[in-house]
Amino acid sequence: MPEILVQYQAEIWQSIEETFIMVGVSLLFAIFLGLPLGTLLFLTRKGQLMENRIVFSILNLFVNIVRSFPFLLFVVFLIPFTRWLIGTAIGTAAATVPLSIMAVAYYSRLVEQSLVDVPKGVIEAAVSMGASIREIIFKFLLVEARSGLVLGLTTSTISFISYSTIVGVVGGGGIGDFAIRYGYQQFETELMMYMIIIMIILVQAIQFTGTTISKVIDKR
Amino acid sequence: MIKLTNVTRTYIQNKTEFHAIDSISLSVNKGDIYGVIGRSGAGKSTLLRMINLLEIPTSGEVVVDGQELTKLSAKKLRLARQSIGMIFQQFNLVNNKTILDNVLVALELANYPKTERKERALEVLRFVGLEEQIAKYPGQLSGGQKQRVAIARALANNPKILLCDEPTSALDPNTTREILSVLKKINEQLGVTIVIVSHEMEVIKSICNFVTIIDQGKVYETIELNPKGIGDSNHTPEWFLQQLRDGESHA
Q: Is A203 helix (H, G, I), strand (E, B) or coil?
């Protein structure tokens, strides 16, 4: 193993752990809040089962506003809220707040788009069989859209990794932040390169896993 | 069995009213195979969808099996829909579910007794001749087989009525005949009342005992059909007669 990696071994492991925590928490929020929100966004669209202009407009506006912030500014903008919520605006835990909000907005849009791809006739067939909205969601919509939902989650995860490098400004840590602080800012180009390689491997592995799962569960 | 009284469906398009369905009344008796024919855009699919209220009429009454559907609560309407089966031109199966699961889901929705679901699903799949295919996915089947699955799904909960929206329009002539004979069998052996919408005279003529011709959202004429073909009629539209003649030359 290259000497420089050995030298910084402890810090590298810690930064990897921080990245996993930040991305993991974001993923949980994406799944448990982004998925329902995206489903609601879809269902309240014009011509859909729960068509509701007001609800749709509010959700749509929320998603658009969050996503139009440059992420760095979003992190800074949220500092008072983060401090109020978890008592501090600094550190890995604090960094998960803006990341999670962004994750919800990001994934809900991808969920909405996957659901739009479900043929309208399938929903119509479900209604004709006397399905309730809940049953339509769980027994038809999510089943038929599942490979798109997995691909969307894969894309989201990779974006969250990228976003997580920015939360270095509030001491979030993580591999990206480590590469910037130890590699770039202290002129350890070699160290920076190794960190980039680690990130490339990570992203490749995530994309491969996501693509494979989505293919296996796609019977269409 | 089905009684539509003065049903109307009006859309507002560019601030002008457009009557997709313009005050139509018709009644279907128990045991009928009732055809609705018309050119595309005539409003026949909209009319069919009023029978299970997929399309809500702007005005008029929809009485199915003694119930006025437009007056039912959402929950009661869902229950009523569970005894009205429906099949579609594009089959509308859940492609990520196996054939068996596609049928099982209909039984789940209808709260069919849990322990008897599988048995019932296999029974209807056997009825349509697909018992060998139950572990496959719709993507692995031909169009005709997919429509059979859709028929099995629609029949699972023992409906009294089966609505068919252009059920053979995506199929070739041989497969069309097969599907029509399945529909006929459903009517004869299970006593299910069938309403079938089609733009193909061949389809209507081969299985229906009544046909209503729809044109521009209105009933043009209702004709009783007998096995020899068309009954008495003196003002049948020319395009319709033409189709009838075309159908005869193909037969």
A: helix
Confirm or reject contact between B93 and chain A (CB < 8 A).
yes
Please state whether the predicted TM-score (pTM) of the whole model is above 0.80. yes
Mean pLDDT in runs of 10 for chain B (251 residues)? 95 86 95 93 92 95 95 96 97 98 97 96 96 96 97 97 96 94 96 95 90 91 73 59 55 40
Q: Is B80 on the interface with A (CB under 8 A)?
A: yes
Are B3 and B34 within 8 A, CB to CB?
no
Tokens of A107: 């994934």
Closest CA to B92 of B74, B106, B71: B106
What pLDDT score was predicted for residue B12? 85
Q: Report how far residue B194's alpha carbon sits from residue B4's, in angstroms, rounded to the nearest whole number.
A: 15
SS (H, E, C) A46-110: CCCCCCCHHHHHHHHHHHHHHHHCCHHHHHHHCHHHHHHHHCCCCCHHHHHHHHHHHHHHHHHHH
> Nearest-CA residue of chain B relative to A217?
B96
pLDDT value for B249: 47
CA B175 to chain A, closest CA, distance in angstroms equals 22
**Residue numbers in A near B80 (CB within 8 A):** 130
| Six-digit token string for B195 | 């309403």
Cα B2 to Cα B9: distance, rounded to the nearest angstrom: 18
- Give the pair of three-digit tokens for residue B238: 């020319």
Please name the amino acid found at residue B244. L
Q: How many residues does chain B have?
A: 251
Question: A13-35, pLDDT tens digit by residue?
Answer: 999 999 999 999 999 999 999 99
Per-residue pLDDT, A84 = 96
Chain B residues in contact with A128 by the CB 8 A cut-off are: 52, 54, 81, 84, 86, 163
Cβ atoms of B109 and A135 closer than 8 Å: yes
* Cβ-nearest to B96 among A131, A132, A146: A146
What ipTM did this prediction achieve? 0.90
Residue of A nearest to B52 (CA): A128
Please name every residue paired with B87 in a beta bridge, in sequence order, or none if there are none. B164
